[in-house]
Write a structure and sequence with these properties.
This protein is an alpha/beta fold. It contains seven helices and five strands. The chain is globular.
Length: about 150
């Protein structure tokens, strides 16, 4: 039996803390480790967080209570030019850029940037309009999660 090659995806998420230089260092670490892709998160804070949404207890412990949930998440947003810089850095390092879009504007942004695959956030697996937008944006059907049998 021959197995298809496993794709290793390094999770950068929002661990860049809104710092583009740190995001590039996360790409460098993932590339140096031999990952095939590095995955970030793409979102518009205002489209995902209510203005009066409270921070979770762990968020208050880690970031304080002075800043709102919306302000905290807004600081983690990657701009369109940030995406350009990160995609270029990934290309230079020989690792693929991947991002989880959390809203339809972000799906469209990734599509405009030439991203050809998408990752669905677990919280959206029952969101039919979101899933339909992802299917329209990333219609590839050639994913292979199966064994290839010899002879």
């Amino acid at each position: 039996m021959t197995l298809l090659r496993t794709t290793i995806i390094a999770e950068a998420g929002v661990n860049h803390n809104g710092d583009l230089a740190l995001a590039k260092r996360l790409i460098d670490v993932a590339a140096d480790a031999g990952a095939d892709m590095v995955k970030f998160q793409t979102f518009k804070a205002e489209m995902n967080i209510a203005e009066d949404a409270p921070k979770a207890e762990y968020q208050q412990r880690n970031t304080g209570a002075a800043q709102s949930q919306l302000e905290m998440v807004r600081a983690l947003e990657l701009t369109e030019s940030d995406h350009d810089a990160l995609i270029a850095h990934c290309t230079a390092r020989g690792i693929a850029f991947l991002s989880t879009p959390f809203d339809t504007d972000s799906i469209a942004l990734l599509k405009r940037k030439g991203i050809t695959i998408g990752k669905i956030p677990s919280g959206e697996i029952t969101n039919k309009p979101y899933l339909q937008a992802m299917a329209r944006a990333f219609p590839r059907l050639d994913y292979q999660y199966r064994y290839v049998h010899d002879g």
